Amino acid sequence: MVEPVGNHYVVARPVYSENLFNEEHEKLHRYHKTFWDHLKLCFRCSPQKAKKIALALFPIVSWLPAYRFKEWILSDIISGINTGLVAVLQGLAFALLVNVPPSYGLYAAFFPVLVYFIFGTSRHISAGPFPVLSLMVGGAVVRLVPDEVAVNGTSMNTSAIDEERVMVAASVTFLSGVIQLLLGIVRFGFIVIYLSESLISGFTTAAAVHVLVSQLKFMLQLPVPGFNKPFGIIYTLESIFSQITNTNIADLVTSLIVLLIVFVVKEMNDRYKAKLPAPIPIEFIVTVIAALISYYVKLEEKFNVAVVGKLEEGFKAPVAPDVGVLQKCIGDGFSTAIVGFAVAFSVAKVYSIKHDYPIDSNQELIAFGLGNIVGGSFKGFASSTALSRTGVQESTGGKTQIAGILSAVIVLIVILAIGFLLAPLQKSVLASLALGNLKGMLMQFREIGILWRKDKYDSIIWVVTFLAAVFLGLDIGLGAALAFQLLTVVIRSQIPSCTVLANVGRSNIYRNKKDYTDIYEPEGVKIFRCSSPIFFANIEFFREKLITAVGFNPLRVLRKRNKALRKIRKMLKKGELQVTPKGLICTANYTHESEEELDNNRIEELDQPTNMTDLPIRINWGADLPLGITVPRVDIHSIILDFSSVSFLDASAMRLLQKTLKEFVRIDVDIYIAGAHEDFLDKLERSAFFDEEIKPSMFFLTIHDAVLHILLMKDISSSAKLKPTEEKGRSNNCITIPSNGLRSRECTVLEEAC
Amino acid sequence: MVEPVGNHYVVARPVYSENLFNEEHEKLHRYHKTFWDHLKLCFRCSPQKAKKIALALFPIVSWLPAYRFKEWILSDIISGINTGLVAVLQGLAFALLVNVPPSYGLYAAFFPVLVYFIFGTSRHISAGPFPVLSLMVGGAVVRLVPDEVAVNGTSMNTSAIDEERVMVAASVTFLSGVIQLLLGIVRFGFIVIYLSESLISGFTTAAAVHVLVSQLKFMLQLPVPGFNKPFGIIYTLESIFSQITNTNIADLVTSLIVLLIVFVVKEMNDRYKAKLPAPIPIEFIVTVIAALISYYVKLEEKFNVAVVGKLEEGFKAPVAPDVGVLQKCIGDGFSTAIVGFAVAFSVAKVYSIKHDYPIDSNQELIAFGLGNIVGGSFKGFASSTALSRTGVQESTGGKTQIAGILSAVIVLIVILAIGFLLAPLQKSVLASLALGNLKGMLMQFREIGILWRKDKYDSIIWVVTFLAAVFLGLDIGLGAALAFQLLTVVIRSQIPSCTVLANVGRSNIYRNKKDYTDIYEPEGVKIFRCSSPIFFANIEFFREKLITAVGFNPLRVLRKRNKALRKIRKMLKKGELQVTPKGLICTANYTHESEEELDNNRIEELDQPTNMTDLPIRINWGADLPLGITVPRVDIHSIILDFSSVSFLDASAMRLLQKTLKEFVRIDVDIYIAGAHEDFLDKLERSAFFDEEIKPSMFFLTIHDAVLHILLMKDISSSAKLKPTEEKGRSNNCITIPSNGLRSRECTVLEEAC
């Protein structure tokens, strides 16, 4: 029948309940893997698997032999040199953020690259220091080794502090490396999927603000202690502005000039991208010029500006991390590990999509973890990747991590041989260079508006992430933002749009009743759709909406009916009622008794199904109640729940749903569930959802199937018995004279239900 | 057409795309309230609204005038006396948990009841101390005022410590009251919906374990300091077992006897519920007997047991809370506020459902907030409600809070007059009485198994909540459990079951292709269903599943095609290809050049739509490619995405979905979206989702509509042009000779796609 008949949708088939459909169409028995099967599969060993894991652990084994030497080596060399120069400058600059002497930044730019060369899966990112991470490590450093009063301590004292600080930075780095490695081993890389674009954008913007504020200290050359605690940024700004008069003018002027030059040249690089053979390496040029000027003008002596100073040549022997420091820095280590990995992975992701190759989040964790362990052991500080540096590596033609290793060689040369050339460079120049790269990140503010138009929640996530990360600090802020983001998912899932549907156009289409004029709602049938999963947080809401939609509370109706039955029994006993073929007839007025008090057992009795077996006649609740007895009117006989959007139910939801359905069934309202997912029935069956009142036969394939079924049933029953039109007319008089407080309340309820 | 035709589902209507349907069926223009409208409505003032708010603020104004004096007063008096006796004992017992002298427990059992009488909305709960809360306050108390070395300090010293402790407890209580009040004012009561049944069950079980452990100290009479920190329970147990030899045997024996009696009698109460006129008030009886024995046997002197001692008579003047303490206890205040409210509200909820009256979560927050503010001011400690006490109040016939106020009168009498009678009571008896109520809570362990069968996630929530609350402490544990619970919702939403559907039974039913034998999948059409909302955490998964389902990566195909086009252009230029009416014909072999390197701009070019306007002929990708040029085979022409379960899309998802759809459109695969929610189109339109490639016309009402549309289109196009059967036969030979590493990889991809 799936043949186009002109442009017509023509279907003729039996009305299918879920049961009937499964009878008619044989279902293949498929074995569904259980949780244990998956676990077994995961831990099964085989030579192939071992080989695969080994290869995955050393990606270099796969890509290095396939290296196309002739084609790629030139690009990689060019890229490596460019990246290496940037890495040197960034290493020096970011060391300032960590509050350690600049030369240690070179170690941070060297060791992780070597490790990443062997273990990394991205071909394009440049491992090494990242400003935000440096800032986070710096926070731990100044917390554990605070500044002594001011900078005018003796030289001896300062170097001791520096040594301690290097040790703390190395320990935190080592710790974060261990954490990353462990997370990688337990396959925790999936965590990255929770870092949504809005969150990353808000977070990196906040990071840029932090970097901006942290560099002010160097640009103005003011002694500002680090505040690594919630609202630290406010304390920092307060500290800066309280001593703004002590600004070193020479440093400020240099900074502004450098910033201006960098901005203008970068803008030109961007604008004439197509025309320039390569971007102007403005950072390198500025550094060389600034160092020359500083050396020849003797800026340090004349204007007391802070310079990089003598870089320590060569390497330090590896050291074991300080256990005492490790204990105090677990929080820092953790946040550094997560943030570092998150940044690196998101950058790597961008290039992996661009160049279409796979990266492996778990392997990346292992690579950066080992990188940090090695880096930390050699007194470097936490590494990840810097957006700008990776941009340089890729845009200057880097094809593989060969470019990375060559950039490490450049750093090595600086460490071993020509570091002294950088000695006269002003720290403020380094700070300005770091700031020069922030423009892009700060421009992300524009996203708030774009996101607001697309999706309000995403916009709010951006803002909350930004504010949390700026004010609570990057670590707590990230945690808070993540929690908030998860909450938004819950909230979205939790606010279903519950609508009453009706047939539009008299075919098999059911749409929101309020939206169309040409609608048809079968008499006595309510079609109710819930457009989200139902779970603990919205099951009550679902129930309320359903009650609003049908117009009465089934439990209340049930209790009233049971109360009415009690009265009828009593009246029959007293002889105030008599059974006639036409129904019950009042022979005497019901003697108004005060509403009797029900103890608890009897209240529970009221919630049971109405039991009329002991009565001589079946009561028709829609009609023929003896005078003085009223029950709320129920003018629907069937409810169809459209569950096509209900992707899951949890235990709370199942329990309350079962209870609600039962209440409806007990007041003779039939319940049908349409469009439920295929595994729904199985799951409900397993959970003992069904009993003699709630049966699997209430499941229908589509709303239309259920509606047709209901119409057919009504057709059969109405042709079988007398049409109850007349009775229906009577039953409208559901009015009673209120006699006291409670009764009047009942009556209101009752009138609402009418 | 909505008429039952026997048991047949018969439909004939046009094939509806979303657009066509909306043209044919007039949609009512409804004004949807915006966020601002809601806000305005929320803050609009009117006399009615003011009155309603005022009435809601003082529920007593509504229920007291409607009090049915004659009917209810007797029950309320009986209930009040019973509840009052329990309240006295619990007050004394729970004061031990707070580590303050027992008499302060009476204040905690008195003031909150008065306040709740006026402000509370539940008719049945008994406000007052709750063991878990007492424990939490007690944690703060011992943290701020630790025990001095051991109990053998001078009497003077002990009383000074006690005084300080009372002050701390009162301050924490006051703080939690302020927090509750504020939360109530900002309508934060909705938070209770996040406390799922599994979470509450696990949490209260953990609380019972804490109470159990905390009472051991009194039962054995050992000096155990409080450990209010993560893993505190382990430290406590360690402390107890390390000094177990110092146990006071008299206390231990008393405890065990009391426990035994209480358990047995409670069991009898339960078993002979129906036969007993009222439960045996075993706590009261045990207390009286124990006090008498202790007094006459002089237990304190002879066996050095700890007794309640002289209760301070009368009230203390109200005090302002200690600001210093407030600052140190913000965390405790917050967790006390939340836990206290959560417990009280969940208990109140149970009875409100049972007796069918509404309660208001925000008003409850206000009532308990004020109760704690007043209680704290009068040196009481944090109050909520105790399950057992509320059970007594309701089961002995309490109808309204009149019973509550009468129970407060009983407490008042003890405070003012007969407190001295309790002086000889052993503390260990109080501890055992508190333990006697834990059985029910500890029995909740059975739920783990029941939940596991119903819903694995719920079972895991239970276990995680329990473990977190036991080991991390109730406050941090609750936070962790809540976060974990939210995460489960995200995880559930995030793992969609993505299935490929096919027509079952040749009518309009589409089911999982793998499940049925009698299926029909229209040629070249993939019907793909995603059964959950799509958002940042699963959009990548969705894309991968879609790519797996269709069998090729559209971006890769697009890039191959664009590369092929470049080659064709080059070959045409060189004259190696010639255009004939039958297609392109190779006149010379394609000269194998080394794979040329593409710079970044050119890579991006590859992602653009294939542009053939400059070519003399339109390339048919399924066939007729010149020798040496290969592209992956694409053997589907249409994809239908069933979005009926996709309840929302976030910005990340929209961006990546748009990108993916575009990639498919660019390789000439038509995309249709069926069953999308009604507001979906509007939302996508607002988000600039549509452009010249992705059009709103791809939305169809149902899968079947889309399938019919596709078949019709194919029908038209195949009758309009020559049938491409022959060409199809040829295009299967998509095999090429690998020339080097990269090419061989391409070839594999390509063969996979074949």
Keywords:
homodimer, 754 residues, alpha/beta, seven-stranded mixed β-sheet, two-stranded antiparallel sheet, disordered C terminus
**How many strand segments of chain A?**
12
Shape of chain A: elongated
- The percent range for helix content of chain A is 55-70%
Category from helices, strands and their pairing of chain A:
alpha/beta
Radius of gyration of chain A: 37 Å
Strand content of chain A: 5-15%
> What distance separates the N and C termini of chain A?
46 Å
Largest interface, Cβ cutoff 8 Å: A-B, 123 and 124 residues
Q: Report the uncertain regions of chain A.
A: 149-156, 722-754
Q: What is the count of DSSP helices of chain A, taking H or I runs of 4+ residues?
A: 31
Q: Major beta sheet of chain A, specifics?
A: 7 strands, mixed
Oligomer: homodimer
Overall pLDDT of chain A: 81
Task: Give the structure's gist in a few sentences.
2 copies of one chain form a homodimer. With 754 residues, chain A is α/β, with parallel strands linked by helices. Chain A has 31 helices and 12 strands.
Please, could you describe this protein's structure?
Chain A is of the alpha/beta class. Helices cover 58% and strands 7% of the residues of chain A. Chain A is built from 31 helices and 12 strands. In chain A, strands 4, 5, 6, 7, 10, 11 and 12 form a 7-stranded mixed sheet that branches. In chain A, strands 2-3 form a two-stranded antiparallel ribbon. In chain A, a hairpin with a 5-residue loop joins strand 4 and strand 5. In chain A, helix 5 crosses helix 19 (427-436), helix 8 (155-185) runs antiparallel to helix 16 (361-377) and helix 9 (197-220) runs parallel beside helix 22 (456-471). Chain A is elongated, with a radius of gyration of 37 Å. Chains A and B meet through strand 1, helix 9, helix 21, helix 22 and helix 23 of A and strand 1, helix 5, helix 9, helix 21 and helix 22 of B.
